[in-house]
Design brief:
Blueprint: H1 2-37, E1 47-52, E2 56-58, E3 77-79, H2 80-92, E4 96-102, H3 110-124, E5 129-137, H4 139-145, E6 150-159, H5 172-177, E7 181-187, H6 195-198, H7 204-228, H8 233-241, H9 248-253, E8 259-260, H10 263-273, E9 283-286, H11 287-292, E10 303-310, E11 313-314, E12 322-323, H12 324-336, E13 340-349, E14 351-353, H13 354-368, E15 373-382, H14 384-387, E16 394-397, E17 402-404, E18 408-414, H15 416-421, E19 438-439, E20 443-444, H16 446-471, H17 475-481, E21 486-487, H18 489-494, E22 500-501, H19 504-514, E23 521-525, H20 531-536, H21 541-553, H22 555-565, H23 567-570, E24 573-576
Parallel strand pairs: 1-4, 1-9, 2-3, 4-5, 5-6, 6-8, 10-13, 10-23, 11-12, 13-15, 15-16, 15-17, 16-22
Antiparallel strand pairs: 7-18, 14-24, 17-21, 18-24, 19-20
Helix pairs in contact: 2-3, 3-4, 12-13, 16-17, 21-22
InterPro entries: ClpP/crotonase-like_dom_sf, Pept_S49_pIV, Pept_S49_SppA, Peptidase_S49, S49_SppA_67K_type_N, S49_SppA_C
Family: Belongs to the peptidase S49 family.
Subcellular location: Membrane
Length: about 575
């Protein structure tokens, strides 16, 4: 017995020591990572600003998540606003002679690519060169790369140029097969976020809006690619339909590229362009490092604040996504900050909780009474994302922003059939007539359906009311373009859901003008979390398991699963958009 206890104690001590060693190693890793991120960067003469695979372009600091053992990549996450500022600075930087686009797969949203593309177009006015090189090139990367004056492709490479398509997955038969009941209440025939639970095929209304949306976006992007490559639009359509980009020789023949070249040959072309001697080194500087090479003093002077609202809208106080308690605090801080003279709210959200959206809108309305509030839309500004924009002095949308989706729904799953098949039943004892109007086993009562329907309808009317106030239109006019329908930014401008088509920079300039500022700094909120804060704020069991599941089944499917399994989400009235459009 004494020997047994000795062995147990020895094992416990060994585990404790191992954990201590791991913890010390982990802290040292964090410290060295932070030290590496703080290094200053100098720009050498005759440098080429390079957009490569290692650049992860994000819309908001809250999108910057470090995986537990992936700390070293933190410095490669760059805000799209910083990217645009870097390209603008490079235009007049004597040390930067040109831009090289070398990203086969660009980690950026469609509107972000649009903005970067426009910034590079402006950069070209300086007379400096822009070249692009690809190997296995995604459609989004090619869209960006076509802004270059010359495009080079690997002799065994390919361009995944194919147009846009969407595939909608349906779960109605799956739910019925396994005895899962799903009660859906919605307002808006176009509110298709819940269609996967109701149908086995796409509805005519959803097909109509998806077709219009995809064609609007493709018309905008394809026309820019065709124009840059000097290809007739009809011919470009043939090239895309025929998948000529998959074959290098056909890519060259049909003018998708200028030359087939190995990567080392491409680097030699850059050296020639820079007039380098044989012994001279080819100096490339990444976007992330170039951004580090310059900084602005945020301690003094008048400011225009950019408040980033990226991700789904929820109740709570977490850092990632848009959590109402956190954002109410951010808004109040900006309202009370005398140095902040105007605020730009950058929205990149498909919506979420109706309650949380309403909380945020209320605080934004109070902020607007004290200082100018201008809205800039990113990839998405739909449902709750559009709702919180209704406090704006002015709304800027990107041409390809998914906009609107003025609609409301509720999803209530229940498991009576599958439970009964497996011998599980329940009886209810209650104090009042509707104490158990909803249960996960028995579903929702008829009176419960009536009341939740009233709640959904009331929330929709409240939604439309705020839109009519901001857009200066009647209920009937907004209802006609509402009903849960999603529009491209171009059409949103045409029907009056936004004021202008423009970038985040355009919104910042207008906010400064409205505040009467001639000289100002731009500050970003919320502030970026340190690597240490990010990791330890995400170490709880729910976050770890959620990440594992999300990585396995994909983000879109995970969000559908959340509607069925997450207690906080399945009982809420939702303002949410179902689409994610990517130009992959």
């Amino acid at each position: 017995m004494k020997s047994f206890f000795k062995n147990v104690l020895a094992n416990i001590v060994a585990i404790v020591i191992l954990c201590a060693v791991f913890f010390i190693f982990f802290i040292m890793l964090l410290v060295f990572s932070s030290m590496g991120n703080d290094k200053s960067v100098s720009v050498k003469k005759n440098s080429v600003l390079t957009i490569n695979l290692n650049t992860n372009i994000i819309d908001s600091p809250t999108e910057e998540e470090n995986e537990l053992f992936n700390i070293g990549n933190q410095n490669k996450n760059v805000l799209v606003y910083d990217v645009l500022e870097a390209i603008n600075k490079a235009k007049t930087d004597d040390n930067i002679k040109g831009i090289s686009i070398e990203a086969d797969n660009i980690n950026a949203g469609l509107t972000q690519i649009d903005d970067i593309r426009s910034a590079i177009e402006d950069f070209k006015k300086s007379g400096k060169f822009v070249y692009a090189y690809g190997n296995g090139v995604s459609q989004g990367s090619y869209y960006l790369g076509t802004v270059a004056e010359k495009y080079f492709l690997h002799p065994a490479g390919m361009i995944d140029l194919k147009g846009l398509a969407t595939e909608v997955t349906f779960f109605k038969d799956f739910a019925e097969k396994y005895g899962i009941g799903i009660q859906v209440i919605r307002h808006g025939k176009f509110k298709s976020a819940v269609e996967p639970f109701l149908r086995n095929d796409i509805s005519p209304e959803n097909k109509e809006q998806l077709s219009t949306l995809l064609n609007d976006i493709w018309k905008n992007t394809s026309s820019k690619m065709a124009m840059s490559r000097k290809i007739d639009t009809a011919q470009f359509r043939v090239v895309v339909d025929s998948l000529y980009g998959m074959i290098p020789d056909q890519s060259l023949k049909y003018k998708l590229v200028d030359k087939l070249a190995q990567k080392s040959e491409y680097d030699e072309l850059l050296r020639t362009k820079l007039a380098l001697k044989e012994k001279d080194k080819l100096n490339k500087i990444s976007l992330s490092n170039y951004i580090k090479s310059f900084s602005s003093d945020e301690k003094s002077g008048d400011k225009v604040a950019i408040l980033y609202a990226s991700g789904s809208i929820n109740n709570g106080d977490k850092y990632n996504d848009i959590f109402s308690e956190k954002y109410v605090k951010y808004i109040k801080d900006l309202q009370d900050n005398d140095k902040v003279k105007a605020v730009v709210l950058r929205i990149n959200s498909p919506g979420g909780s109706a309650n949380a959206s309403d909380e945020i809108l209320f605080e934004l309305q109070k902020l607007k009474k004290k200082k100018p509030l201008v809205i800039s839309f990113g990839d998405y500004a739909a449902s709750g994302g559009y709702y919180i924009a209704m406090a704006a002095d002015k709304i800027y949308s990107e041409p390809n922003t998914l906009t609107g989706s003025i609609g409301v729904f509720g999803v209530m799953p229940y498991f009576k059939d599958i439970a009964n098949k497996n011998g599980v039943r329940s009886d209810i004892v209650a104090t009042n007539a509707n104490s158990a109007y909803y249960s996960s086993l028995n579903g929702i009562t008829p009176y419960g359906v009536t009341q939740i329907t009233r709640s959904v309808e009331g929330t929709y009317k409240r939604f439309v009311h705020f839109v009519t106030q901001n857009r200066k239109k009647t209920f009937e006019q907004i209802d006609e373009v509402g009903g849960g329908r999603v529009w491209s930014g171009v059409r949103a401008k045409q029907i009056g859901l936004v004021d202008e088509l423009g970038t985040l920079n355009d919104a910042v300039k207008y906010a400064a003008e409205k505040a009467g500022l001639k000289s100002y700094k731009v500050s970003s909120y919320p502030k970026r979390m340190s690597a240490f804060e990010q990791i330890f704020s995400n170490l709880d069991e729910d976050n770890i398991s959620a990440r594992i599941i999300k990585n396995k089944i994909g983000k879109a499917n995970y969000e559908i699963l959340q509607q069925i399994t997450n207690e906080k989400l399945k009982s809420e009235v939702k303002m949410e958009m179902p689409y994610q459009i990517k130009i992959d």
